[in-house]
Amino acid sequence: MSTFFPWHQIDTVLIDMDGTLIDLHFDNYLWQQLVPQRYAERRGMALAAAKIEIDTHYHAVNGTLNWYCVDYWSEVLQLDIRALKQEILTKIQWRPHAIAFLAALQAAGKQRVLFTNAHPASVSVKDQRLGLRDHLDLMVSTHELGWSKESPHCWQALSARLAFDPARTLFIDDSERILKAAADYGIGYQLAIQRPDSHQPGQQITAFPVIDDYAELLPSIL
Length: 222
Prior knowledge:
Blueprint: E1 12-15, H1 25-43, H2 47-61, H3 70-77, H4 81-87, H5 98-107, E2 111-116, H6 120-130, E3 138-141, H7 152-161, E4 169-173, H8 176-185, E5 189-193, E6 210-211, H9 218-221
Parallel strand pairs: 1-2, 1-4, 2-3, 4-5, 5-6
């Protein structure tokens, strides 16, 4: 699908964090490799068995705020998730041309809002590493709103928190399910990220416009 947007009809850009502004490799490595490894070591079990056990926990709360909650997983898995993150900080990286894209939005007078399901502790770690807030007008975690982006209640809560016109808003995310939730709420424009994790193949998304590099958008904004 075309990635052309009528920028003169867009006032606000809501941007997801993990997999959208930031390479998802950090989170995938944490949750799919490091956490199972430490879980297995702690319980003296095989890694394959640990992954099966953890996946059961993951699937039970997928799409809810608990799925994104550092404190929840620290308690359930009996692991210090915050400490594990500190071990792999070098894996926290911007997606290609993300900073240039945010600068172009600012120059064009657009409101730039980070809108993420990530726990505030996760946002803080990435902000400290990359200086996120230096490139954004506002950062909102859905944990502050009480609902994940998958829920229509979340979008209603956001509208009470943030002054924006849904019809004149672009939402960028790496999850097709969440993009659909935004469209169902009435967000005027959606954009998907094709390859959230730079170490993994791209995903197949057909319902929304897709990009792999923010450089694809720069000529139309500048």
